[in-house]
C-alpha cells in the first residue's frame, strides 16, 4: 500500500505575533457600510461587552470605574477592537441623531448632541492610531490613520469647516487609494468601496468652497477627480500630499514583501476567483505546495523518460498527498458554502469548487499515466500490443 507523503506545511494558519498585531479595520467595520445604521450602535455595544468580559477588562460592575487603555496593556489583538468599536458606536449614534433631528423639524439640541458624538468618535479614532503605532503591524497603522482622517473629516463637515474637511478627506482618499493598490482581493474591494464613500463628502466640500469664492456652481454630473481637488490646495499642501502618498506606498510594499506566501485568488479558464475564507485559503496553499514539490520531483523524469521507475513509491506518495489536499479543500469549500451569506460568495465558492475538482481529476489521471509508464519501463512493452506510432 502506498502511503501518502505528508505535505510540507507552511500549512499552519497564521498566528498573531506579539507585540505586532494585525487589525483589519476595513473588514471589521464593513458591517456598517450597508447604509442601515439604526441597530449598529447596539451591535457595537454588545461587541464591546463581549470583548471586555473576555479580556477581564471591565470598568466596574455596579459602579462605573474608568480603566484607561494604554499600550502596555495590549497583550491581545482584541484590546485594539475596544477603541475601534467605541468610535464606531459614537459615529453610528451621531447618524441616528441627525436622522431624528431631520424628522423632528431640525431640533438644534439634537444636532449639538450629534456633533458631540462625532467629536467623541474622532477622539477614539486618534486613540486607536496611538495604540496601533506601538502594538500593530504596518498595514494596520496605515488603515488606522486613514480611518482617523475619515472620522475627523466627518466631524469637520458638521462644523462646516469646509477647507479643513477638504484637506483631511483628500489625505484619507489618497491613503485608501494606496491601500487598494497594494492589497488582497478582499482588501482591494473594501478600500475601493471606501474611496467611493468619500465621493459625496468631498463633493460637498468642493461645492461649498467654490460658492464661497464666488465661482460658478460645479455640475453634479461632472466627475470629481483627485487632480481637481488638489488644484484647490496650495502648492505646499500638494507637495505634502504627494510625499504622503509615496511614504504610504513604500510602507505597504515593504510590508507586503515580508508577508508569507498566501493564496488570495486563483485564475481558471480566464476568470479570476477571489479566495476569501481563511480555512479555504489555508488548504489551497497546501495544495499549491504539494503540486510544487511534485513538479520538482518529476523534473528529472521529463528530462530523461528512462528514470520513470526511480523513486517510484515516493512519487506515488506525493501524488496521493496532493489528491488528499484536494479532498480537504473540497470539504472546506463545502463548509464555507453552507455559511455563505450572499449570492456573490456562493457563486465564487462554486467556481472555486469546480477549479479544485478539475485539479483533482488532473492529478488522478497524471498518477495513472505515471504508473503505466513506470510499469512499461520496468516490465517492458507487451509484444501482443502494436508498437506506438512515432511522434
The parts where pLDDT drops under 50 for at least 5 residues are 1-19
Written as H for each helix and E for each strand, in order along the chain, the element string is: HHHHHHHHHHEEHHH
What's the end-to-end separation, in Å?
Answer: 35 Å
What's the helix count?
13
Helix content: 55-70%
Q: Give the assembly state of these chains.
A: single chain
Biggest sheet overview = 2 strands, antiparallel
- The secondary-structure class comes to mainly alpha
Gross morphology is elongated
What is the CA-atom radius of gyration, in angstroms?
Answer: 28 Å
Main-sheet strand order equals 1-2
- Rounded mean pLDDT is 82
Secondary-structure map:
Layout: H1 25-29, H2 40-55, H3 78-103, H4 108-135, H5 138-158, H6 162-181, H7 185-197, H8 199-212, H9 226-230, H10 235-258, E1 265-268, E2 271-274, H11 278-303, H12 312-339, H13 343-379
Antiparallel strand pairs: 1-2
Helix pairs in contact: 2-3, 3-4, 4-5, 5-6, 6-7, 6-8, 6-10, 11-12, 12-13
Task: Write a short abstract of this structure.
With 391 residues, this protein is mainly α. 67% of the residues lie in helices and 2% in strands.
Give an overview of the whole structure.
- The structure is a single chain.
- By secondary structure, this protein is mainly α.
- It has helices spanning 25-29, 40-55, 78-103, 108-135, 138-158, 162-181, 185-197, 199-212, 226-230, 235-258, 278-303, 312-339, 343-379, and strands at 265-268, 271-274.
- 67% of the residues lie in helices and 2% in strands.
- A two-stranded antiparallel sheet has the order 1-2.
- The longest helix has 37 residues, at 343-379.
- The model is unreliable at 1-19 (pLDDT under 50).
Amino acid at each position: 500500500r502506498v502511503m501518502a507523503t505528508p505535505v510540507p506545511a507552511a500549512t499552519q494558519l497564521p498566528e498573531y505575533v506579539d507585540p505586532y498585531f494585525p487589525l483589519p479595520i476595513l473588514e471589521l467595520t464593513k458591517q456598517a457600510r450597508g447604509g442601515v445604521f439604526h441597530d449598529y450602535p447596539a451591535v457595537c455595544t454588545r461587541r464591546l461587552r463581549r470583548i471586555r468580559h473576555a479580556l477581564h477588562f471591565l470598568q466596574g460592575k455596579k459602579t462605573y470605574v474608568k480603566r484607561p487603555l494604554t499600550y502596555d496593556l495590549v497583550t491581545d489583538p482584541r484590546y485594539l477592537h475596544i477603541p475601534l468599536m467605541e468610535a464606531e458606536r459614537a459615529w453610528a449614534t451621531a447618524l441616528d441623531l441627525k436622522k431624528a433631528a431631520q424628522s423632528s423639524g431640525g431640533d438644534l439640541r439634537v444636532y449639538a448632541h450629534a456633533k458631540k458624538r462625532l467629536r467623541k468618535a474622532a477622539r477614539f479614532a486618534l486613540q486607536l492610531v496611538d495604540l496601533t503605532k506601538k502594538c500593530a503591524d504596518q498595514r494596520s497603522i496605515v488603515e488606522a490613520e486613514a480611518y482617523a482622517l475619515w472620522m475627523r473629516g466627518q466631524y469637520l463637515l458638521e462644523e462646516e469647516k469646509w477647507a479643513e474637511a477638504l484637506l483631511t478627506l483628500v489625505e484619507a482618499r489618497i491613503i485608501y487609494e494606496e491601500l487598494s493598490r497594494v492589497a488582497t482581493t478582499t482588501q482591494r474591494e473594501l478600500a475601493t468601496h471606501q474611496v467611493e464613500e468619500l465621493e459625496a463628502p468631498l463633493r460637498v466640500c468642493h461645492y461649498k468652497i467654490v460658492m464661497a469664492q464666488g465661482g460658478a456652481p460645479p455640475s453634479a454630473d461632472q466627475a470629481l477627480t483627485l487632480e481637481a481637488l488638489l488644484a484647490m490646495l496650495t502648492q505646499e499642501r500638494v507637495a505634502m500630499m504627494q510625499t504622503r502618498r509615496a511614504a504610504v506606498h513604500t510602507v505597504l510594499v515593504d510590508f507586503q514583501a515580508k508577508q508569507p506566501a498566501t493564496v488570495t485568488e486563483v485564475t481558471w479558464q480566464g476568470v479570476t476567483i477571489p479566495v476569501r475564507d481563511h480555512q479555504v485559503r489555508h488548504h489551497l496553499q497546501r495544495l499549491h505546495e504539494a503540486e510544487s514539490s511534485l513538479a520538482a520531483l518529476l523534473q528529472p523524469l521529463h528530462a530523461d523518460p528512462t528514470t520513470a521507475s526511480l523513486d517510484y513509491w515516493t512519487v506515488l506518495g506525493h501524488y496521493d498527498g496532493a489528491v488528499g489536499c484536494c479532498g480537504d479543500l473540497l470539504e472546506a469549500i463545502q463548509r464555507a458554502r453552507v455559511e455563505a451569506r450572499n449570492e456573490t460568495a456562493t457563486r465564487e465558492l462554486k467556481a472555486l469548487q469546480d477549479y479544485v475538482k478539475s485539479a483533482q481529476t488532473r492529478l488522478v489521471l497524471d498518477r495513472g499515466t505515471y504508473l503505466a509508464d513506470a510499469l512499461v519501463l520496468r516490465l517492458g512493452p507487451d509484444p501482443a500490443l502494436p508498437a506506438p506510432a512515432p511522434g
